[in-house]
Amino acid sequence: MCRGLATLPVTCLERAKDLKTRLGILLHKPELGHRIGTSSKLQLGSRWRDSSQEVLEWRESFDQLLKSKSGVTAFHTFLKTEFSEENLDFWLACEDFKKTRSKTKLASKANRIFEEFVQSEAPREVNIDHETREITRKNLSGATSACFNVAQAKTRTLMEKDSYPRFLKSASYQDMTKQA
């Protein structure tokens, strides 16, 4: 840590981190109409009104959040603050994997996803039980678009029951709803 930051009180550092998170969410929302370097103000137009309605819909269900590109971005940014973004990254990788049509690509993608997210001690290991991990490992031998379904469903349930309610209560989401 640099000397200047070390002298600041912890509360200032926490507040700065919170602001960074909130700004990160806004910077990843292209529909706000803000382009870096063009203006210091957010340009609000009809797209913002559409987006604000979308923000309010996120609290209706976890599915509504996942259907929205900006919702996924905001949720991902929130998960980063909790150091649990690997759950959403895994879910998104599985969704992309299901769209793969080539058998060759299917097998290589399946192995990459398994090594990155599912196997024990994976770099971005998701929180699934041993039985689910074993089922998924066995499914790799005949990789189909459904080989991650059980693990993906467990991860989705974990996010829906655990992270999603915290996201809805988070200061960043509350700020977005106030603006909407």
TrEMBL record:
It is found in: Membrane. GO terms for cellular component: membrane. InterPro entries: RGS, RGS_sf, RGS_subdom1/3, RGS_subdomain_2. GO terms for biological process: negative regulation of signal transduction. Keywords: GTPase activation, Lipoprotein, Membrane, Palmitate, Phosphoprotein, Signal transduction inhibitor. PROSITE patterns: RGS. It is a lipid-anchor. SUPFAM superfamilies: Regulator of G-protein signaling, RGS. GO terms for molecular function: GTPase activator activity. Pfam families: RGS (PF00615). Its main location: membrane. Residues 61-177 form the RGS domain. Regulates G protein-coupled receptor signaling cascades. Inhibits signal transduction by increasing the GTPase activity of G protein alpha subunits, thereby driving them into their inactive GDP-bound form. Plays an important role in the phototransduction cascade by regulating the lifetime and effective concentration of activated transducin alpha. May regulate extra and intracellular mitogenic signals. This is Regulator of G-protein signaling 16. It comes from Phoenicopterus ruber ruber.
